[in-house]
Amino acid sequence: MGKILKLSQSIVSKTAAGEVVERPASVVKELIENSIDAGATFISVNVQKGGIKSITVIDNGEGMDDKDLAVCADPHTTSKIYTEEDLERISTLGFRGEALSSIAAVSRLAIKSRTINSVEGNILIMEAGKEMKRSKVGMDFGTVVEVENLFYNTPARKKFIKGIQAEFRQILDNVISNAISRPEIGFVLVHNAKKILDLPNLQTREDRISAVMGKTLFAEMFPVDEDRDHHKMFGFLSNPQASGYKRTGQYIFVNRRPVASKVVTAAVREGYGTLLDRDSYPPFVIFIEAPFDMVNVNIHPRKEEVGFINEDFIFRIVKETVELALRNQNLVYRTDIFGNPFERGVADYTFKKLKGSIDSWKLEGLRPEEIIQIGELYLAIGTKNGMLLVDQHAAHEKVLYERLLDEFDKRRREHKSVSLRTHIIFDLPASESALLEESLTIFERLGFEIERFGDGTYKVRKVPEMLQSHDVKRVILEFLDDLSREKPVRDIDTKNLKTISYLACRSAVKDGDHLEPKEREKLIKDLLKTKTGYTCPHGRPAMVEIPFSALEKMFKRR
Ligand code: ADP
Ligand code: MG
Fold it and tell me: Which residues sit with their C-beta closer than 6 Å to ligand 1?
């Protein structure tokens, strides 16, 4: 009794804001959407510290006059829909009039805007939802929105912010999605004063996709196009061999809005059918154009998902189009698809090269022929105490790990890398190249010399001595693939160790690799020389000894 009270306006606006603005990337999403709705042909996004410190979005769209500016960050103010009927045919990205007011409630927000008809612009500054300043300002046409100290007044929300890199990755993915859907708009993305993306306006759809996904991957993609019952589906699918084991590179757009859609994702998967194994994901870009009244854009607080009135129809059109397109491709497994970050099985190839570099050796009291390879995975040896079982992958991983670690330590004092006679050149999709940029110093300290060409293209000039006979490109690419699936590592030392263990893992022999007796012996000898040969860098056992006592028990000799 008497326990129910009305929440204060300040709490209401903060909790409501949490629905729209979940993290820095949602702010970026809303601001880009506003710029697109304003008809901009150029959008520049500049973020600091993953957007946690500041986010600035500049556009050359239609702008706002002083009257509109005064109310744009009030709750539920919009120029995009006026009537209930408008809600049935939304063609803009925004429509709820909630974004700017939500952002204003949980940050320090400055909006400058100037329309083409006025000689000067206006500025509005809000703090925690309150107007602090409004005045004239000199500026170019368009709008500049600056968001600082996001969530400074909502500590509960702030706790959910991940590391800078994790937040930035979300922002990057968001900009990439919008960039793919609007090749006519120029996009620039800057993170901590470093230009990550620079996409000119008026690009063709193909050029735009190739620019953000990487030329190499785009070369493995082919177009699809279908028109059925007032619905269109078009875009690009990838050769199944270009699949990766994460969803990176899957983009869906419904009426040009970047969305997640379980129906479409499931339909694509079924369309590929048995061409994919259980956990591989083909990159794709799919645009669906449906009549506005067949799509519900109002089912998600951040408009990240859409609902289809006719889900079954959407499922069928996508599945059948994908299936047919793949059938017409005359797919053949090829061995020349290298340098693709979405590709799997790099380590196998790498090892084929490494194997050649293993030469003869001796192990006291043991002849190579006495080492048996079982299931192309385990090595078994009889010892004085019983039997030694070695997991060849774990063992080799451990050996390489320690060598890389040594290399890393040595590099602090001396340079021990070799120049490549032919430089290795590769290009990466924007999301992968951001990752590489982050890890460049680690690669450098390991003895790599990687030079950035811009445009997602890199040149490797030097590699650590011990990796010179490897397929370096693939080691780097698979490492990045792995790293992007990991949670961000905060501690730099842990990150170094992670890098090293990944490189070791990716270069090591796998199960299924046949080893010649001499290679078996060499591996075991090397393993015995490591500091702790018992486990691989991830803590799995590298060798297990089965003593005679255990064997006797097994055979009930006692
Ligand atoms: P919504 O986008 O749903 O309308 P917002 O809170 O995002 O709601 O924006 C409120 C209004 O402010 C928009 O309807 C639009 O008129 C104006 N506005 C916001 N951003 C811009 C911009 N970059 N350029 C021009 N007008 C803008
Ligand atoms: Mg909006």
Answer: 30, 34-35, 38, 59, 61-64, 72, 77-80, 94-101, 143
Report the chain's terminal Cα–Cα distance, integer Å: 76
Q: Locate the ligand 1 atom nearest the alpha carbon of residue 96 and give its number.
A: 3
* CA-proximal residue: ligand 1, atom 12 (nearest): 72
Cα 87 to averaged position of ligand 1 atoms, centre (Å): 16
Q: Which of 304, 32, 312 is nearest to 188 (CA)?
A: 32
Per-residue pLDDT tens digits for 93-128: 998 999 999 999 999 999 999 999 999 999 999 999
Is the entire prediction scored with pTM above 0.70? no
Q: Give the 3-state secondary structure of 29-66.
A: HHHHHHHHHCCCCEEEEEEEHHHCCEEEEEECCCCCCH
Rounded to whole angstroms, how far apart are CA atoms 545 and 534? 10
**What is the whole-number distance in angstroms between the Cα of residue 34 and the centre of ligand 1?**
5
Q: Which of 133, 15, 22 is nearest to 75 (CA)?
A: 15
Contacts of 231 (CB under 8 A, 6+ apart): 288, 289, 290, 291, 294, 313, 314, 317
- Ligand 2 centroid–CA 329 distance in Å is 41
**332-366: per-residue pLDDT in tens?**
444 333 333 333 333 333 222 222 222 222 345 67
Amino acid found at 27: V
